[in-house]
Amino acid sequence: MGSVIGVTATLKEDGEAPAPGEVSRPLGEYVRADLDYVEGVYEAGGVPIVLPPVGGARSAEALVGAMDGLLLSGGSDLDPKYYGEAWLPEMGETIPERDEFEMALVGAALWRGIPIFGICRGLQVLNVALGGTLYQDIAAQLGAEASQHRQTALKWQPAHEVEVRGGSWVGEAMGEAGVKVNSYHHQAVKDLAESLVVSGTSSDGIIEAVESRDFSEQWVFGVQWHAEAMRRVGVEHRNLFAALVSAAENHAVRREAA
Ligand code: MN
Question: What homologous superfamily does CATH list for 4-257?
Fold first, then answer.
């Protein structure tokens, strides 16, 4: 037994650079999910399934029916058309198939009352799917004081602190008010969706953790840092995965009772 947790994946193009004098090899495209997310779910007692970003709404609907929880992984920037803005020059790479699929996935998961945990891009997708907006580039829109959010240190090393709101789900799960987190984002929440509340901020006011207000039975939460990469160095980060799996188990019980 174990509840099934869908883990979003990305599309990556791969190919080896040709050696001098060699013909370049054809590139392959791959569906790829970082093992840290997949293992994080498994270690917390869940059964991960990787969700390829293919097929948009039709895939999203069918897949959501086969899972008890959803983990939105990190990755490329979300196309600002989803929050009604034109591109700034500082926008990073987008993957249209992934954007379309994940927006549909969040909608379908909310509809079915499935718990959702968003990490980094995942938090941003969650906020936009619920009607919020993003800073397309923190440095361009907020200035250099926000530079602490793009670390060069190794991924399990902290870059800054987050003040977690007492009594929040994220706070309860992590068991601490001040947590040290890594930081690999150049975007952040600008306008928070109405159905979300802030559950953690950094010292410069960037929203680093959110959770739902309207879905009282449904755990919907997100963190801006890569908790999956810090779960071996801090139990508080592992606890976020445990919170998702536990909420997914409760959802499975309710679904079977219905
Ligand atoms: Mn940060």
Answer: Class I glutamine amidotransferase (GATase) domain (3.40.50.880)
Q: How far, in Å, from the CA of 113 to the mean position of ligand 1?
A: 29
In this predicted model, what pLDDT tens digit does every residue of 27-75 receive, in sequence order?
778 999 999 999 999 999 999 999 999 988 999 999 999 999 999 999 9
| Residues recognised as catalytic | 120, 226, 228
92 C-alpha to center of ligand 1: Å?
A: 17
- CB-count burial class (<10 Å; 0-12, 13-18, 19+) for 130: buried
Q: How confident is the model over 91-110, as pLDDT tens digits?
A: 999 999 999 999 999 999 99
Ligand 1 centroid distance, CA of 173 (Å): 19
As a whole number of angstroms, the distance between CA 242 and CA 251 comes to: 14
| pTM, two decimal places | 0.94
